[in-house]
Structures are given as C-alpha cells and as structure tokens.
C-alpha cells in the first residue's frame, strides 16, 4: 500500500478517488479537444486516448463493485454512488465520437442507408459495466447523434406504446413467430416530440422467400388518442406524409382496419435512453445501447434491471473486434429478446405463454473478467492514472480486510486489479482476456429524478423543443451529487438506492410499490395514461417475476427453407416408387393374358395407394412445419401397412401364375 494513503480512512480514500476521477475526466476532455485541433496524423494519439478512457471506465467499474460490497449503512453507499456519478464519461464519449468522424473525413450528420441484408443479435449488460462496454466500442465506432444540437448528450429518450387485444392475439402470434404475425406500436423520439411514428411490423418466415417488414407513417402526437380509438384522422395528417403519400395512405388504412377489426388498445409502454454507435453514411455495423428501460401499464411502472445491447451487422461484414465483443463475458446473449413481449409478461397474468428468458432474468449472469491496460503516452494522464491505481489498490485491500473482519461475517470476493495501466488488449489483439466463472450479481435499480425540476423546465422550455434539446449537461465536475441520472450515468447504481428527492416523487413511488400484475381492464389502465410523458418517472419495482411463472414457455423457432425441400424430396421418393410399380402393372395388363392382367391390376392398386399415402404424408408434414410444431414427424404405422399391401400384391401375382406351364 503506498505511503501517501496509509493515513487515510476508507471514506477519505473513496472521496479522494472520486475527486481524482473528476480531475481525470477534465484532463481527458482537454486532451480530446486538443486532438480535434490537430491537422496531422492522429490515429495513434486517438487510440492512446481510447485506452485512457477505458482505464477510467474500468477503474470506476471496480470501485462501484467494492462500494456495493462494503459493510456500511445503505445511506452511505447511496451517497458515495451518487457522488461518483459526477465522473461520468458521457462528455468524453461525445467528443471522441466527433474526433473519430473527423479523422475519417465524414460529416457528423448524414443520411443512413438501411437497405441491406443484416443480422441482429441482442444482449443483456450489467449496469455497472456500461461505461466499460462503451470504452471497448469507441476505438472502432463513434457515438452517432441524429440531429446533434451540440449539447454533449449522447443518448435520447425513445418511448413506444404497443397495442393488442384483450386476449393478447398479437402477442400470441408474435411470441410463436407465426407466418404473417403483426405488431403495432406508436413510437416517439423525445418525450416532448410533436411528431410520432405509427409502425406496423410483419413477420415473414424464411421459407416464404419474403423479408420481414417494418412500415411506418407520421402522425401528430396530439392526435394519437384519437387514432387509438379507431377515429379516422387522415385528413389531419396527410400533409406530413407527402413524401410517400400513396404508400402512407395504404398503410394508414391497414392500421386503422386492424385497430377497428380487432378492437386493439394500448397495453404496454416502454421508455428508455438509446445510445447508438455507427459511422455516418455507413450502416454496415450498428450498435445500440438502451439504458434506463422502464415498462409501463397505465401508471404502473417497472424498471428493467439490465441494459440492452443490440448489434446489427451486414452479412459478411464481421470484423474481429466485433466478434471478440460478442464472445466476451461482459455481455449475455438473449436471442430474439423483445421489450414488448417482456412488458406484457411482467404486467399481465392473462398472457397465454411467456418468453423463454422470462424465468431466467432473476438468475445471476455476472462473470469475472479482466482487461489488461498499457501505460498511456500522455504524461499528465499517466500521472493521474498511477495515483488512481494506487488509491484503487488501497481501497480494495481495505474493503477486503473490512469484509473479512466484519461482525456480520460477510465475505465479498473482489476482482483483482493486476497492474492496471491504460490501453485494452482489444485495441491491439482484438480480444478480451476474460474468465467465465459465475459471480454474484448485484441487483440494480434506477435513481430518482426531481419531479419539480422537470415541471420548472417544462414551463421554461419553448414550444416544440424536446427535453433532450433544452437540457444542459448538469453533471459537471463541480455539480451536486443529486444531479439527474442521464445516459450512461445510470450504469453506476445499486439495489435499494432509490431515495425520492421530492414529495411528488415519493407519491409516485407509493403508487408503484406493491402493485399486483394487472389484468386487461380499461378502467385500471386508462388509455390516456399511455400517452402521458413518463421518462422522468422512476418505477419502484423491477421487471422480474417474484416467483417463476408456471405458464407455457415459448421458444422462438426458425424454419429454414431446407426443411421444406427435405419434405418435398421425401414426397418425390415415394412418388417415384409408386410410378415404378404402376408402370409394371400397366405392362402386365398389356400382355393379353388374363392372369397377367389381374396381376397388373393388383400392382396398379398398390401404386395408387402409395401415391395417396405420399401425398397425405407430404401435406401433413408441411402443415406441421408451417405451424412450427415440435413433432414428432415420423409415421410408425404407415410404412408397415404399405409393406403388407405390397407383399399381398406380390403373393397374389404369383398365385395367378399357378399352375405354371
């Protein structure tokens, strides 16, 4: 333990760590801005800064783990974790994204081509690992901000209201991935957006040769309640859908008919912050990170305990660093994860089945992993890195000793920090040094935001301006500990740290606590509640089952075209055999002999039976494949009967030939 920190108490060491972290953030921002002013080759300097940013994120991740493991009062933990949020890397990610775009000679805002074949993978991310994950991405992809207003915000709110029937007809078809399954949602970008999107997604199975589609048209946000009731509003929105008027009108009529015919109504609303990583004018690799996910049913909200990482890759464009990230222990793959399906499952007990991940979400997936660092070339950053590393070792050693000698007898495992000094191995070797032993995961919850502050800003904001555009970066180096949690800041939080800061927030938490799962009742969940701003409302309960659900679990099944081809090949094999037998029978009938003719008739009858059986088997299996029936697909009795019929025909043919001449 360094002599400089021997006399410090654990609390003083933690405060010193937080202070030095804010200093390092200021140095990082200063160096990034200096980098953007350079006109010479700056790739090496950029990679060096990426390593320094990752070092900061990794140090913060470790210190959060040890703060959560301390045997101190929960209020003290909350205070330390809130204080630590002033050292967020959000501004660094923002400026580094612009630096990388400028290095590539691109414009910060450009049109994006989305017309290509790509595959999508989804993952869960522990909230404490968010900044570390972003630190692994920024060397290769910049933060993409559509409509950048220069505020330094790297994420924006997205809210989606999903529609369904009382019996969850759309949910049931969607979870089974039936051919032609549809889902309807209304999506808004920013809680105060005056324009929203009505989106209709249609699933197409691979065997059809068609691609799944997502079509949408624009609608004034104030008109959404009318549309949700099935009222015709086309005359009021056709002026904002002029670019694709004919297609928009056809889609609008389809959506309106769907709402009216099925009596659709809002069932779930999801609200989250999205951070996107990609190059302008290039969508071959797109990564999005959704944080602060809340799922609402009326005024009842539940927060999702993980962040959601989505990686979209163009077919054939799989770079080494992306594959290394996808295979790392930092994230957990959850194939076909759906916010809509999970929101319905957690809020309604009347859903016909649950997704496969629903009962697994409460299980720990956190794993030990280590990231190797190399010294940075920047002298100032290297000095502060060394001081913080010494502090980190001191805090880890003290927390281990405190946990070992605690009166409560609680033992905590701490992750070793072996000589942590800057750049990640992913930048050079494109892989993570990770071990995959399971570790205990700390449950996470969102931090509270001030409702009064929100109302004040709403009153001062000009009409038509979104919350993100008018919001300034409140979490500066000298900001108060109670600043609003935004974007990546919310990765550093722990269970039971929610302390409402106003009476209004306490009332909201009272509403959201100890609420049973709802049934489909419009009186309990009035439609107007789904269309009210809810980004700053913090749910009080996690979106996880209190006990494992006993409902049927539906696993997504993808039917490949080759399955249908195999069924056709089997049918043709049977048909070929039937034609062969029928040909023999026809030849026997043409010999002119009565006995031969009778034998020929027997063989033709067998041929017809084989043909009918082959056609029946083909159609039976085809329907089961289309319905994604798990099987079995074999026929235990049919072949036995066919063999008996064939042998009977052979015996009859021989019998007609006696006596032999």
TrEMBL record:
UniProt KW tRNA-binding keyword: no
InterPro entries for the chain: CYTH-like_dom_sf (IPR033469), DUF202 (IPR003807), VTC_Complex_Subunit (IPR051572), VTC_domain (IPR018966), VTC_sf (IPR042267)
GO cellular component: endomembrane system
Ranges of biased composition (kind: Low complexity): 411-422
Domain VTC, chain residue ranges per copy: 118-346
Protein localization: Endomembrane system
Presence of the UniProt keyword Membrane in the record: yes
Membrane topology, as annotated: Multi-pass membrane protein
GO term, biological process aspect, one: polyphosphate biosynthetic process
Region span, Disordered: 400-422, 437-473, 521-551
Biased composition (Polar residues): 437-451
Residues making up the signal peptide according to the UniProt record: none
Keywords noted in UniProt: Membrane, Transmembrane, Transmembrane helix
Sequence ranges assigned to domain DUF202 in this UniProt record: 562-623
Transmembrane portions of the chain: 571-591, 598-620, 640-660
The protein's name in its UniProt record: SPX domain-containing protein
Source lineage: Eukaryota, Fungi, Fungi incertae sedis, Microsporidia, Nematocida
């Amino acid at each position: 333990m360094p002599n400089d920190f021997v006399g410090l108490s654990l609390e003083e060491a933690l405060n010193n760590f937080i202070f030095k972290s804010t200093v390092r953030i200021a140095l990082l921002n200063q160096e990034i801005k200096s980098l953007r002013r350079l006109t010479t080759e700056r790739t090496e300097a950029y990679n060096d800064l990426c390593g320094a940013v990752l070092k900061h994120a990794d140090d913060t991740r470790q210190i959060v783990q040890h703060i959560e493991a301390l045997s101190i009062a929960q209020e003290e933990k909350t205070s330390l974790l809130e204080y630590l949020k002033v050292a967020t890397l959000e501004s660094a990610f923002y400026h580094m994204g612009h630096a990388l775009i400028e290095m590539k000679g691109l414009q910060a805002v450009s049109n994006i081509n989305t017309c290509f074949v790509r595959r999508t993978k989804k993952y869960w991310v522990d909230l404490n690992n968010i900044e570390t994950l972003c630190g692994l991405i920024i060397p290769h992809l910049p933060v993409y901000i559509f409509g950048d207003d220069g505020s330094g915000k790297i994420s924006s709110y997205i809210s989606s209201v999903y529609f369904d029937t009382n019996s969850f007809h759309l949910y049931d078809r969607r979870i089974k991935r039936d051919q032609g399954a549809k889902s309807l949602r209304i999506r808004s970008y920013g809680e105060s957006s005056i324009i929203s999107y009505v989106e209709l997604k249609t699933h197409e199975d691979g065997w059809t040769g068609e691609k799944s589609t997502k079509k949408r048209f624009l609608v004034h946000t104030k008109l959404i309640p009318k549309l949700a009731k099935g009222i015709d509003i086309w005359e009021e929105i056709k002026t904002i859908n002029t670019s694709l008027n004919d297609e928009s009108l056809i889609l609008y009529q389809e959506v309106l008919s769907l709402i009216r015919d099925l009596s659709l109504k809002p069932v779930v609303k999801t609200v989250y912050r999205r951070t996107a990583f990609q190059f302008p004018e290039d969508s071959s690799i797109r990564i999005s990170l959704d944080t602060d996910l809340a799922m609402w049913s009326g005024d009842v909200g539940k927060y999702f305990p993980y962040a959601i990482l989505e990686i979209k890759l163009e077919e054939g464009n799989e770079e080494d660093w992306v594959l290394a990230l996808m295979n790392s222990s930092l994230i957990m793959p959850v194939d076909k994860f759906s916010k809509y399906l999970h929101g319905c499952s957690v809020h309604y007990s009347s859903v016909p089945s649950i997704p496969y991940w629903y009962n697994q979400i409460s299980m720990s997936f956190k794993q030990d992993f280590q990231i190797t660092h190399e010294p940075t070339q920047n002298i100032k950053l290297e000095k502060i890195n060394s001081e913080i590393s010494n502090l980190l070792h001191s805090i880890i050693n003290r927390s281990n000793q405190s946990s070992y000698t605690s009166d409560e007898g609680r033992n905590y495992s701490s992750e070793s920090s072996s000589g942590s000094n800057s750049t990640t191995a992913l930048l050079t070797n494109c892989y993570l040094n990770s071990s995959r032993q399971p570790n205990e995961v700390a449950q996470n919850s969102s931090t509270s935001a001030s409702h009064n502050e929100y109302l004040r800003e709403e009153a001062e904001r000009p009409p038509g301006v979104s919350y993100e555009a008018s919001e300034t970066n409140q979490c500066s180096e000298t900001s108060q500990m109670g600043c609003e949690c935004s974007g990546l800041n919310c990765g550093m939080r722990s269970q039971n740290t929610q302390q409402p800061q106003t009476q209004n927030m306490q009332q909201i938490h009272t509403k959201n606590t100890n609420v049973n799962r709802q049934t489909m009742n419009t009186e309990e969940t009035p439609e107007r509640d789904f269309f009210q701003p809810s980004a700053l409302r913090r749910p009080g309960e996690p979106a996880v089952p209190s006990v494992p659900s006993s409902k049927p679990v539906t696993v997504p099944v993808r039917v490949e075209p080759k399955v249908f081809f195999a069924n056709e090949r089997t049918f043709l094999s049977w048909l070929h055999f039937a034609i062969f037998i029928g040909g023999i029978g026809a030849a026997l009938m043409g010999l002119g002999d009565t006995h031969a003719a009778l034998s020929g008739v027997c063989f033709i009858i067998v041929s017809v039976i084989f043909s009918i059986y082959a056609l029946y088997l083909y159609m039976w299996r085809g329907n089961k494949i289309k319905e994604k029936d798990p099987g079995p697909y074999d026929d235990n009795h049919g072949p036995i009967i066919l063999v008996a019929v064939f042998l009977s025909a052979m015996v009859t043919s021989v019998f007609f030939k006696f006596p032999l001449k």
